[in-house]
């Protein structure tokens, strides 16, 4: 589908609130924090969009990174000057690195992800702990650390940071082990590598812990990447959401953080206008 066809289709279905050029025209971002996206910010019933179109809109709006994109889509990112800011790493939310029974399958996938990330100059590879399923938090921490110590020399040599994602186990992912900042920080300490850090998901940690700004400031040395979404509902930032993102981002910038902050909400409104607004809110 060409851009012209997409514009005509979305106008016909009523999903464009204003013209495409007006939706993507914006003053240049200050860029004090590098902002990225995930595919989810563009998903909306009745509004199909190709990955190429997503990337074109990102480039127009000043986005610099695209999370959770694999090698087959790296050429499209390169076409629009976007960075694959968080590469899938082969572990899973439910079956992850905390279970030794999963290690034989995860290790070759993770090593390949590190190679692919390095070749594409992607800064990060995502890691997921897996569910508890009878595994104690201490046992899971020790098992996870032992596994990651095996692959960290490769990541260090490649200049790739492995980021374990903090997810909530209260609403979205019951049983997930890496559901608290303190557990994730202990894992970082146990591994002892500057190339192993946390993917701090602000939405998930608002549900589990709250106290977002203080937690970020106290643990910034262990944080390599951020995800955003509104709460409740994991929607875009608007008047229905309890998280006030501008001071959160200001606090992150004030720490000297130099990584990416990527948006991972699901838009209920016009996705392009929602993204434009989110970028502006976070452009402190």
CATH topology: TIM Barrel
State the end-to-end CA separation: 36 Å
Query: Which parts are unreliable, with pLDDT below 50 for 5 consecutive residues or more?
Result: 1-8, 10-19
Beta-strand percentage?
5-15%
List the helices and strands in order: HHEHEHEHEHEHEHHEHEH
Number of distinct helices? 11
Helicity range: 40-55%
Strands of the widest sheet, in order across it, are 3-2-1-8-7-6-5-4
Q: What is the CATH class name?
A: Alpha Beta
Which structural class is indicated by helix and strand composition?
alpha/beta
Question: Could you walk me through the main structural features you see in this protein, from its secondary elements to its overall organization?
Answer:
- Helix 6 (137-158) packs across helix 7 and helix 9 packs parallel to helix 10.
- The chain starts with a helix and ends with a helix.
- The chain has helices at 3-12, 20-24, 51-61, 74-79, 103-119, 137-158, 181-191, 202-208, 212-219, 245-254, 271-282; strands spanning 34-37, 65-67, 83-86, 124-127, 161-165, 196-201, 223-228, 260-263.
- The protein is α/β, with parallel strands linked by helices and 284 residues long.
- It has one domain (34-282): TIM Barrel, CATH 3.20.20.
- The longest helix is centred in the middle third of the chain and has 22 residues, at 137-158.
- The protein contains eleven helices and eight strands.
- An eight-stranded parallel β-sheet has the order 3-2-1-8-7-6-5-4.
